Amino acid sequence: MYRTPMSRVLGMGSAKDGVGHWWSQRLSAVAMIPLVILAILPLGGAIGSDHAAVLATYANPWNAIVLILLLVVTFRHLQMGLQVVIEDYVHDKAWRTGLLMANMGFCAVMGLAGVFGVAKIALGA
Amino acid sequence: MADVNRAARPLSPHLSVYKPEWTMVLSISHRITGVALALGATLVAWWLLAAATSPEYFAVVDGLMTSWIGNLVLLGSTFALWYHFGNGVRHLAWDAGYGLELPEAEKSGKLVVVAAVVLTALTVALV
Q: Along chain B (127 residues), what's the average pLDDT of each consecutive run of 10 residues?
């Protein structure tokens, strides 16, 4: 098999990728352990409460920071997880590429929407 | 194929002829709860955006989340969260090389299911 000097240096073989995705998935999983534990009670308490109570919960900087971190890590973890599911089950190249792009866009938009919402509440708008 | 030892080697489990095992149900459940949590996470993000937008928009999303179907989705998401959380920790332990023997893996699987039920009940009771 012919290999360019660059491909030999990178050492990735036919997978074209290293352990970066796998490691990021684990890293985000570990990060979510404390974040979920810290965020679940304020979030669970706020869901189902009236509007003023929700605003009061996330006017608290600590609650806001924890939830923003959780949203960022969750939507990144979700994007990576759904990517693997799509790669496993969708074999048609056009469909797979399109769904992988849609997945990235959807997770970025929803994650940002959540972060923007919390930030706006926390900053008192 | 020239591979004469084909039948002698262990083959990957072909699901249609493979006896269902607890551990494989738990394994696919990790993926199913992960995909299902996309709905829960999206709902929470939408609700946060609505809360930051206006009282009227908040009322719309809050109405959806506190409806019976919303409550059902939230309860399901809570269980999915704690199952995926516990089984995720189980996966991290495997990645670190712990608990890979079959009896241990079966025991930790049962523990994850019990923990998910208990944590779901606790979450519902506390919030």
A: 62 75 92 98 98 98 97 97 98 96 95 98 95
Q: Which residues of B touch A (CB under 8 A)?
A: 31, 34-35, 37-38, 41-42, 44-53, 55, 58-59, 62, 65-66, 74, 78, 81, 85, 88-89, 91-92, 95, 123, 126-127
Instruction: Flag whether residue A42 sits within 8 Å of chain B, measured between CB atoms.
Output: no
Average of per-residue pLDDT values in chain A: 94
Apex A40 CA angle, A35 and A45, nearest 5: 150
Question: Tens digits of per-residue pLDDT, A15-57?
Answer: 667 788 999 999 999 999 999 999 999 999 999 999 999 999 9
Cβ of A19 under 8 Å from any chain B Cβ? no
Residue with tokens 């990645």: B95
Averaged pLDDT for residues A100-106: 98
Structural domains of chain A in order of their starting residue, each with its CATH number: 24-122 (1.20.1300)
Reported pTM: 0.89
CATH class of B22-126: mainly alpha
Tell me if A111 sits within 8 A of A72, measured CB to CB. Answer: yes
CB within 8 A of B99, min separation 6: which ones?
Answer: B90, B93, B105, B108
**Beta strand extents in B56-108 (DSSP E only):** none
Distance from CA of A9 to the nearest CA of B (A): 27
Q: Are B107 and B90 in contact (CB under 8 A)?
A: no
Picking from A36, A21, A90, A73, the residue whose alpha carbon sits closest to that of residue B80 is A36
Chain B residues near residue A89 by CB distance under 8 angstroms: none
| Structure tokens belonging to residue B42 | 């999206």
